[in-house]
């Protein structure tokens, strides 16, 4: 009974393998038994592969989540300007405007009030400073065109050595200049009424002071045809107290200020 049971157990795989081959030989019998054993052994392996393939799906989901996280990081990353500088306020180099504002660093009385104001005075301020007293329409229109985040040169005017001495930032856009309605203020204008204000003011804050100022004489040498400042508004309209500055002019003058500072330091060393 035991042999019969063994014989039946051997014949069963032979009958399955005989369907694949038309010739039955003793040699193929052993080979087919080996193939049958291999097939029976591979069966659980295929199940194992199926289980393994099932466990590969969660990592794909994790990768997808990682991509979403990277996208979120890119969305909150500060905007970069054309030269690589990052602006936390999101202002790009294309949308930022540049200006030049004049002030008088030496004492001068207007309506009994000293109107002296230098870049050192601005640097000492702890709050945004109102740039008031503008009483020319072209200059006022430039004030009204300013946007928060714009940058401006601070220019010392009506003094022994006029020139660009540093930079500042526009932190509040234009609003009515209330000093025009006060008879005690230096630039009182009786024609301007609170109900219909003619003049405007912006608020600025200090950014930097140049180690060496760029004097008016040097600026004039740079405004000849073919020179970097040939179209600079301040040099073409010298009496304008608030003028536009192009992006190229802005970058050129800042680089010039840095170059002058390096030259002075190298001479002193």
Main sheet attributes: strand count, strand direction, barrel closure = 6 strands, mixed
Highest CATH level, the class of the domain at 91-268: Alpha Beta
Percentage of residues assigned to helices: 40-55%
How many DSSP E strands? Answer: 10
CATH topology of the domain at 91-268: ph1033 like fold
Tell me, rounded to a whole number, the average pLDDT.
Answer: 78
Low-confidence stretches: 1-55, 63-86
- Beta-strand level of the residues, as a percent range? 15-25%
Question: What is the CA–CA distance across the termini?
Answer: 112 Å
Structural class: alpha+beta
CATH superfamily of the domain at 91-268: ph1033 like domains
Count of alpha and pi helical runs: 8
Order of H and E elements: HHHEEEEEHEHEEEHHEH
**Shape, please?**
globular
Q: Taking strands numbered 1, 2, ... along the chain, how are they ordered across the largest sheet?
A: 6-9-8-7-3-10
Q: At CATH's second level, what is the architecture of the domain at 91-268?
A: Roll
Q: Any idea what the radius of gyration is?
A: 41 Å
Main location: nucleus
Keywords: Nucleus, Phosphoprotein
Region (Disordered): 1-88
Protein name: Thymocyte nuclear protein 1
């Amino acid at each position: 009974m035991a042999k019969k049971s063994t014989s039946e157990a051997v014949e069963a795989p032979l009958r399955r393998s005989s369907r694949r081959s038309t010739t039955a030989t003793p040699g193929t019998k052993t080979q087919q038994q080996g193939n049958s054993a291999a097939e029976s052994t591979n069966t659980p392996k295929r199940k194992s592969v199926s289980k393994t393939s099932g466990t590969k799906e969660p990592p794909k989901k994790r990768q997808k989540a990682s991509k979403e996280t990277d996208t979120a990081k890119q969305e909150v990353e500060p905007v970069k300007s054309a030269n690589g500088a990052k602006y936390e306020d999101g202002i790009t180099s294309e949308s930022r405007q540049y200006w030049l504002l004049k002030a008088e660093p030496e004492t001068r009385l207007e309506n009994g009030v000293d109107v002296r104001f230098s870049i050192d005075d601005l640097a000492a301020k702890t709050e945004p400073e109102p740039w008031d007293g503008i009483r020319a329409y072209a200059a006022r229109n430039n004030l009204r065109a300013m946007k928060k985040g714009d940058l401006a040169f601070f220019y010392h005017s009506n003094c022994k050595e006029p020139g660009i001495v540093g930079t500042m930032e526009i932190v509040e856009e234009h609003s009515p200049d209330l000093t025009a309605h006060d008879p005690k203020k230096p630039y009182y204008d009786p024609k301007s009424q609170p109900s219909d204000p003619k003049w405007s003011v912006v608020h600025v804050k200090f950014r930097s002071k140049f180690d060496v100022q760029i004097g008016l004489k040097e600026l004039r040498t740079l405004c000849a045809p073919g020179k970097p400042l040939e179209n600079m508004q301040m040099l073409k309209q010298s009496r304008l107290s608030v003028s536009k500055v192009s992006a190229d002019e802005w970058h050129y003058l800042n680089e010039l200020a840095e170059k002058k500072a390096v030259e002075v330091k190298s001479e002193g060393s």
